[in-house]
Every structure is written in structure tokens, then in C-alpha cells.
Amino acid sequence: MYRDSRTGKGLGSRVVGGGLVVYNETVKKRDGVPAHLAPPSSVPPPLVILQQVSRVYHLGPVRVSALDSVDLELQPGEFVVVLGPSGSGKTTLLNVIGGLDSPTAGRVVVDGMDITRSNEARLTQFRRRKIGFVFQFFNLLPNLTARENVELAAALAGTQRLIDRVMDDVGLTRQSRQFPGQLSGGEQQRVAVARALVTDAPLVLCDEPTGNLDFATGRRILKLMTDISRQTGKTFVVVTHNAAIGRVAHRVLHLRDGRIVQEKDNFEPIDPERLEW
Ligand SMILES: Nc1ncnc2c1ncn2[C@@H]1O[C@H](COP(=O)(O)OP(=O)(O)O)[C@@H](O)[C@H]1O
Ligand SMILES: [Mg+2]
Hints:
single chain, Rossmann fold, six-stranded mixed sheet, globular, binds magnesium ion
């Protein structure tokens, strides 16, 4: 079942001529032509496809299965929350999607590119242009100002035009010239969000982005993310062990022992401002 990411309405799908086409069940007629005779509009393919992805670590004689035969598809514009206890494979899943780690088995396709068959040089370009990362401990460069941290990501991706707008979107124009050490935790995370958004990357991967923030600040960061996801159509994957955060997502995945053990569509995501935890 595919969902229109904006209206949340269900979309029927069927396969025609080998390609997947999707049409909106609620549209009965197009231009006066009965729906079954009108050419169906095609939708973009999933932004992310994981097929039977496993990641095994060997610690001496011990074999740790951080991801175990995971199948997953993420649609453009989706806001997905991944929940699971510590050690369940959440970070490994993000790293494998973002090309920071390679699976030991399976296939990962992002925006049409099979990253499991790419060499390092292509993977570097892939990470710069296709992925925005947001981490729990911000990972900013301490000797660059807030704005310079954002400018560097833009320069690496070759997309300078969004810098001013993104600094404004995250509310940091005034703090542009401050160094990370001169910013609060929430402000540092806003720099990290700006850095992830300053490119044309269609996918933003966030690993415990509110894990190091107080409740009110964490909620503001989430609000920023859901607003931007809606405005830009970027796909967000937010990893957290905080189940309350699932309520803002279109879809919630539960990981345990490297497997997706539960998957829930959320047809009425709430505004992060209404979150309590
Ligand atoms: N580099 C590594 N070397 C060995 N084991 C690892 C490594 N990274 C993760 N693991 C193991 O893989 C499992 C999943 O880890 P991780 O993805 O970090 O979980 P989570 O983010 O949900 O806490 C854990 O058992 C962890 O110890
Ligand atoms: Mg983790």
C-alpha cells in the first residue's frame, strides 16, 4: 500500500507494462474520462530500497548480527521514526542507508544508485550530495563558526545557493559568527540540521537527534525537522529510543536484534508541539 505523503490518503497500485504505477483511489474521473480508461499517473519509485540487508560484526570468536535480513522501502517525502532498545541495530541501519557502513549481505539502493556496488570515490560523492546527517552529539567542527560549518557542507556538495535561507530557517542568522563552543546544545543541533539541509540531498538521516537535548529544546528541533520535511519533500529517518517521538512520524519501525519486528503507519501524525515525554 502506497500513501500520498501529503494527504495521507491511500493510493491503489498496480503494475502496468513492467513499471509500477499508482493512481489515487479517490479520483474517479480525470478530464471527464472514466478512471479505468485514463492513463494512470506514474509515481516516483521508492527513494530507499533495502533488500535482505545484513551486517555482521566479528568480535574475536563472537559473531554479532547488527542487522539481520532487513527489507525496507522508504518513499519520497516520508518522515519515518525508527525505535528500538540500545544495541538493536538503529545506528547500523542508518549507517548502511547513508553509505557510512557496508552491509555484509544484501542490496541498498538510494535514489536509483546501488551503493552496495559503489567504490569509495563514488560513495563519497553519494554521501555529500544525497545524504544529510544529524548526530546526537552534533559533530560540528569546533574551529569553524556556525555559518562556516554549514558553508563547508554546501561547498562539498557544490550547492552554495541555500546557505542564507537555511540559516534563517533554523533561526541562526544572528549566531552565524559564533563557534560551536559559544552555542547552547539546541543551537548546535540547529547548526547540524542546517548543515544537513543546505544541499539538495533528498534524504536526511538523524541518529538520536534529541538525545542530548532537554525536552523543550528537543521538541523544537523535531518541529523544525517536520516543518522542513513538509516544505521541502525531503525524506527523514529519525532514530530514537524515545517511543513518544513516533507520534510525529508517518511510519514507525521497531527494531530488535537487528530485525524490523513491527511496522506501523500513522495516518494522523501529530505536531511536535503537542508532544509530551
Ligand atoms: N563497530 C562495531 N564492532 C562490533 N560490534 C558493533 C559495532 N557497531 C555496532 N556493533 C554491535 O551491533 C549491535 C547494534 O549496534 P547499533 O547499531 O549501534 O545499535 P543501536 O544504535 O540500536 O544502539 C550491537 O550489539 C553493537 O554492539
Ligand atoms: Mg545507536
